[in-house]
Amino acid sequence: MNWQEVCEHPSLQDLPFKIELDENGKIILSPAKVYHSFFQGEIAFLLHSLLKDGKTLTECAIKTSKGTKVADVAWASMDVWAIIKTQTEASIAPEICVEIISDSNTQQEMVEKRQLYFEAGAKEVWMCDEQGDMSFYNTQDQLIHSELVSGFPLKIDV
Fold it and tell me: What pTM was estimated for this model as a whole?
């Protein structure tokens, strides 16, 4: 199955799960808890407030070498937005991709997602854990804070 087929399949329209595809086209379902929605909304709001020259996205489907992955939150410059805005899945990753870590996510899964987003063109990948603690990465290493968004908090308070 490809991402276009997933988007058009009637029985997949109203599932209460995040849907992704693996490299073989198999569907991966991840249930979302309330705290996940809260962090997603707060991070999207902060990105929208702090970065004016671009677009803030939620549930951004990104084509990777291992299937379609969906960043919980993303931010794309106007240049990247011009390329991806009409695509079913982004052919290149937005500059910032954010994952909100659930208790079902493994550390290896998050490392792999980070690598896939970088391979697809992301400049930074952020992780938000279940307590709201943020971690920031560029292609080389973990960062103390975001280099692209000065002033982004290290913790999202509940």
Answer: 0.88
Residues 48, 92: Cα–Cα separation, whole Å: 20
Answer yes or no: is 11 within a domain. Answer: no
Rounded CA separation 61/2 (Å): 12
Return the ∠ at Cα 35 (arms to 131 and 116), rounded to 5°: 75
Please say whether the beta carbons of 94 and 76 come within 8 A. yes
If one counts the domains in the chain, the total is 1
What type of residue sits at position 24? N
For residue 127, give the CATH number of its domain. 3.90.1570.10
Supply the range of the domain harboring residue 46: 32-143
The 3-state secondary structure of 3-70 reads HHHHHHCHHHCCCCEEEEECCCCCEEEEECCHHHHHHHHHHHHHHHHHCCCEEEEEEEEEEECCEEEE
The residues with which 31 forms a beta bridge, in sequence order, are 17
Name the nearest CA neighbour of 135 among 110, 108, 103, 104.
110
pLDDT in tens, 61-73: 999 999 999 999 9
